[in-house]
Design brief:
Number of strands: 5
Number of helices: 14
Radius of gyration: 22 Å
Strand content: 5-15%
Strand order of the largest sheet: 2-1-3-4-5
Shape: flat
Oligomer: single chain
Length: 334
């Protein structure tokens, strides 16, 4: 394992707005923030190789059938298919999203909201799910949730400026509204497995080892690891989702699905990945300026077992907390 690399602050977040004027009223705060709504937003990126195996094909088929029923104005059949899709695969975000959207169309907002919030948990960069969740929350008097969701919808790239203005005219935004609405946006890149894939392609490299206590076949471990990218597809999705959720929950970063909206690209370079459970993963995390291509923040990471979602989320949350501290210090120094 390489020694830990300390954080650096070589790249400052770009300043694309002027927030010098003081804003005192809620509507004024929202209006001022809307002037900021250029592209200053981190999201689930392209799914890794083999990720289709992480989803139930029946859930996908049922969801597609439900969408057809919705377009044919057959809501009862659509809802039944979506319920079955979620039963088949509770973590298929599209089924939750379509269920929430359908229930919203049926004006069953109290039922729509949980489905939409679940969709945003499974795919934090889905701006439209955040927007619909904000509407459902507002209609059910969940104003704090509505503000949180409309902010994340904006950071994800949704055009919600008018909605923010209308909301601010009725209920004041949260105290940290300006900080959150102007948060730098980022895009989570697919895991970089080049290091371990390169070793797999060079079986006679001096680092190849035969570990008879773990591998009775006598085949070097790096040869056995050539298919890790496919074998660990579901775990890769879990890592990307956990990073996206942690960033969205941090209140200092935004999450986008379109890299063109991002200020930062989050690069996760994997140097070591265990062949068997527990799947230990080691590597480096870089926060790279999209335009500059320079890493402003870099640190080593070790995940004890990417197959254990609870442990993984805790470890990633701590990494993102450190990234948030770095960003706050960086902004304070400017």
């Amino acid at each position: 394992m390489r020694p830990a690399v300390s954080s650096s602050a070589r790249v400052a977040p770009s300043r694309r707005h002027d927030d010098g004027s003081a804003v005192s009223r809620a509507t004024g705060v929202a209006t001022a923030a809307i002037a900021v709504l250029g592209a200053i937003t981190i999201s689930l990126a392209v799914e890794p190789l083999g990720a289709e195996a992480a989803q139930s094909s029946r859930a996908v088929s049922r969801t597609e059938r439900a969408v057809k029923y919705i377009s044919d104005n057959r809501p009862t059949e659509a809802l039944k298919e979506l319920d079955l899709a979620i039963e088949d695969d509770p973590e298929y975000w599209e089924a939750h999203y379509q269920r929430g959207r359908l229930l919203g169309q049926m004006q069953r907002m109290d039922e729509a909201l949980p489905s939409l919030l679940r969709a945003t948990e499974l795919n934090p960069a889905m701006a439209h799910a955040h927007e619909l969740a904000a509407i459902a929350a507002w209609e059910t008097d969940e104003y704090e949730v509505a503000w949180d969701q409309v902010i994340q919808a904006h950071l994800g790239g949704a055009q919600v400026e008018e909605r923010i203005q209308r909301m601010a005219g009725v209920r004041p935004p949260p105290d940290d509204f300006m900080e959150r609405i102007t948060a730098p946006r980022g895009f989570v890149l697919p895991l970089d497995l080049e290091e371990i894939q390169t070793r797999a392609e060079l079986p006679f490299d001096r680092n190849a080892q035969v570990r008879d206590d773990e591998n009775r076949s006598g085949i070097p471990e790096n040869i056995l690891g050539r298919d890790l990218a496919i074998e660990t597809a579901a775990e890769q999705v879990d890592v990307l989702t956990a990073f996206s959720n942690a960033l969205a929950d941090s209140r200092v970063y935004g999450v986008v699905s379109d890299p063109r909206l991002a200020e930062y690209m989050l690069r996760i370079s994997v140097d070591e990945l265990a062949e068997r459970p527990p799947r230990r993963m080691e590597g480096f995390l870089d926060l790279v300026g999209r335009e500059s291509g320079i890493s402003g923040y870099r640190t080593a990471f070790t995940f004890r077992d990417i197959g254990s979602k609870g442990v993984l989320r805790g470890e990633i949350a701590r990494l993102v907390d450190d990234m948030g501290d770095w960003l706050r210090k960086l902004r304070a120094s400017q």
